TrEMBL record, chains A, B:
Domain of life the protein comes from: Archaea
Keyword rRNA-binding attributed: no
PANTHER family reported in the protein's UniProt record: HTH-TYPE TRANSCRIPTIONAL REGULATOR BETI (PTHR30055:SF234), HTH-TYPE TRANSCRIPTIONAL REGULATOR RUTR (PTHR30055)
Domain HTH tetR-type: 3-63
SUPFAM superfamilies (UniProt xref): Homeodomain-like, Tetracyclin repressor-like, C-terminal domain
Listed InterPro entries: BetI_C, Homeodomain-like_sf, HTH-type_TetR-like_transc_reg, HTH_TetR, Tet_transcr_reg_TetR-rel_C_sf
Keywords attached to this entry: DNA-binding, Repressor, Transcription, Transcription regulation
Name under which the protein is recorded: TetR/AcrR family transcriptional regulator
Pfam families assigned to the protein according to its UniProt record, in alphabetical order: TetR_C_6, TetR_N
GO molecular function per UniProt: DNA-binding transcription factor activity; transcription cis-regulatory region binding
Length: 199, 199
């Protein structure tokens, strides 16, 4: 299998989905975007459902790589860095594309097991990541003893999910939300109360 | 115009959308659900886009009625009551149907001005409602002086939006979230710290 061609089709799927949305995008659109033929798409992917499932795996790899690349030694730096990474805003950024693409496939989740299973992987990845940062912070004494990592993670992941939904549907900037989330973390998780985050 | 027939078409749109999702639902499906003809749907609504715009206005009226019916004298009771109303969970409830339906149309928002404008009305309604409750609470001394109503409302509405998205896409219960939100409000807004909310 020619990996480059298959990957280019997935990248083209991303662009076509951002332009048109899941309901309106066709294999013809994706073929045009990839400058290839519908036949070649069918050669790699049996149908639109298979293509979209593969597309979500492709996005998942990029997404987890970006999140794992967040740097910082201290738990609070890692948490703030994570907020900045997943809430990064602006027209045409990777974050904006991801949100729009996710939103497009989100709508299919209640009706499509393959899509739902994959969206659950995104959700679980972020949940585990946040929970582990918060647990590290509690263990290190950087976050309050009475913070329950699982509960805090659930709340944070829910707010991030809402930020993506609201950014894509009602055009609310998530930049502002990144600030609010940071303030929430500074005020409500950090053991010694509100202070400035370094750099 | 026969209001009953037009309203029955909107109710049928809701059911068809919950069953199939926006991408797959057709005017034929809606006609079958309403036990009427596609011709009659076209008589009331020019096309699928017009029908969906009217459908969102219909949902908006039901949604705002439900939120306005939340009782309670004190700001904290009103806030907790609002969380319970918008996060009410369970298969087949009005809340669950609303979420699924909203999710279906959310995906169209980036590509359709009429839909986006209407979703903005939902968002602004909830934002103003929460901000006004929080502002009342601060003014009455029930919430902390240093709570900024607009910032708290933005955070709360974002978390609610995320709860709806996660409930519909990855099947995370929002019952649990209602508890977490209440705990957030109790812990972080209420002036005298964590206490029990009157039943």
């Amino acid at each position: 299998m020619d990996d480059d061609a298959a990957t280019e089709i997935l990248a083209a799927t991303h662009r076509a989905l951002c332009d048109r949305g899941y309901a309106d995008v066709t294999l013809e659109d994706i073929a045009a975007e990839a400058e290839t033929s519908k036949g070649l798409i069918h050669y790699y992917y049996d149908d639109k459902e298979t293509l979209f499932a593969e597309f979500l795996d492709y996005l998942y790899d990029r997404y987890t790589e970006r999140i794992e690349s967040v740097e910082g030694e201290a738990p609070r730096e890692r948490l703030v860095g994570l907020f900045e990474t997943v809430l990064a805003d602006g027209e045409g950024t990777a974050g904006e594309q991801l949100r729009t693409a996710m939103l497009a496939v989100n709508a299919q989740a209640p009706y499509d097991d393959a899509i739902r299973t994959r969206l659950e992987r995104f959700d679980e990845f972020l949940l585990e990541r946040v929970e582990s940062i918060v647990a590290d912070g509690v263990a290190a004494g950087a976050f309050d003893d009475d913070v329950e990592p699982a509960v805090a993670a659930e709340f944070i992941v829910t707010a991030i999910s809402g930020a993506h939904t609201r950014r894509a549907t009602v055009d609310r900037s998530s930049d502002r939300l990144a600030e609010t989330m940071t303030r929430y973390a500074e005020r409500h998780l950090v053991a010694d109360g509100p202070t400035e985050v370094p750099g």
